Amino acid sequence: MKRNYVTVLSLAGVLAFGTLTGCGSTGKATDNNQLSFAESIGKDSESAGEDSPGGKETDPAADDNSVASSDSMESTTDAGASSDLYEAFKKGEEKVKYRGTGDMASYIQLSAVLTPGESYLLSDIRDKAGIIDDFVQYKPQGDAEFSYIDCGMDGNKELLVRQAFAAEDMYEVFTLNMIIKDIDGELNICWDQDMWSRSDVTVNEDGTIEGGGSGGAALHYTDRSFVDAGGDYHYFYGLESYMTPYGEYYSYKDGDYTSVDLEGLDNEHLAIDAYYFDSDPEKRSDYPTYSILDDNYNDVTTEEDYSEDSEVMKRFKDAGINIYTRDEINDILDKRAGEIGYPSSNY
């Protein structure tokens, strides 16, 4: 299995990014924010109107390889019915049911404004999603954008929707992403997640979802999840990566945390990764590991760095926290992927 560790090179990029933007600052949405929606599924982005942010309306028929083309939709099981429902939803003539599952949004939270089991038009979602509280209200920016993916690669297409929002007097753009599936003739929201200038979301053609962001120059977040062929959402793992951590480090188990004193260690050459398999902070349990870095943030970890003589290992052991080697993390991820049926070898 090939795994994407976000420890050294990615965090070095985050360090540079934090230097340019400032920790905790917000700014105008970047090009990466706009491109991530469709970059991994080719030229299959389709806008509801020319005013949509991020690009013009495209003609799906212009590209024979486009998964949004009418030919590819016709080839699916009961494709005619699904295509008609999706088109009706895009035109504002068909409702979609909010199931209340797979809600991973942080700012544009459907869980705060929609009722599980109830169905809504696209215009309803646009109007409701931006009014999260009485203090900050996000207004839709342009029209929704649409694309088609194939969760589970079973030949039945799902509709991928992106809608941008912005609050008044703010340069930040928050973009809501949704996967909508025709299940027995009824449209359902299977997953939703927002992104902004410091948090990105990529939805792959097979329904796998890659999220990432930064909480500062030395802190990076990653998550992996997917929607299966039946429309069910599965959280694979989350990862918090800390480069050059100082002070205290907090490790979670069953929602409670234990602190580790890092003072006196060679923190400038240390990176700590915490993997977890529940997105709910109240249930989170960490599987921590660490890496030793050189002056250029390259990983130079050896087996001896995990020995009982390691000063880093001693700190965690004294705090009652189990450290996992990278080989052990590999095995844990492999087992987790098999248990939930993660459809890709790239994680």
Overall pLDDT confidence: 81
What is the terminal separation in angstroms? 8 Å
How many domains? 2
How are the strands of the largest sheet arranged? 1-4-5-6-7-2-3
Low-confidence stretches: 1-78
Main beta sheet: 7 strands, mixed
The radius of gyration is 22 Å
Shape: elongated
Q: Give the topology string: H per helix, E per strand.
A: HHEHHEEHEEEEEEEEEEEEHH
Give the quaternary arrangement of the chains: single chain
Q: Which structural class best describes the helix and strand composition?
A: alpha+beta
Estimate percent helicity: 10-25%
Q: Tell me the β content.
A: 25-35%
Number of helices: 7
Strand tally is 15
Structure, described:
It is a single chain. This protein folds into two domains: 1-23 and 217-347, no CATH class; 27-197, no CATH class. The protein is α+β, with helices and mostly antiparallel strands and 347 residues long. The strands form three sheets. Strands 1-4-5-6-7-2-3 form a seven-stranded mixed sheet. A hairpin with a 2-residue loop joins strand 12 (248-253) and strand 13 (256-261). It has helices at residues 9-21, 31-35, 70-74, 79-90, 122-129, 311-318, 326-340; strands at 46-47, 96-98, 119-120, 138-149, 158-167, 174-183, 186-195, 199-203, 208-216, 219-227, 233-243, 248-253, 256-261, 270-276, 287-292. The chain is elongated. The longest helix is centred in the C-terminal third of the chain and has 15 residues, at 326-340.
Quick take:
The protein has 347 residues and is α+β, with helices and mostly antiparallel strands. It has helices at 9-21, 31-35, 70-74, 79-90, 122-129, 311-318, 326-340, and strands at residues 46-47, 96-98, 119-120, 138-149, 158-167, 174-183, 186-195, 199-203, 208-216, 219-227, 233-243, 248-253, 256-261, 270-276, 287-292.
